[in-house]
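From the shared-data thread, chain only:
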Amino acid sequence: MSTKETKSYKIGRDSRTGRLESVEDARRHPSSSQVEHMPKPGYGTEKKK
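Structure, as tokens:
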């Protein structure tokens, strides 16, 4: 069984301050934070030059 490498990773964000936090902290406080998918370098929406 091969593992497929993803083009993004999960990161937590505090809703009040906008600061990044761990996914564990974000899941611990669902009313004040959320878990987002952040693209790995080179896989974002910017066009390559």
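Helices lie at 23-28.
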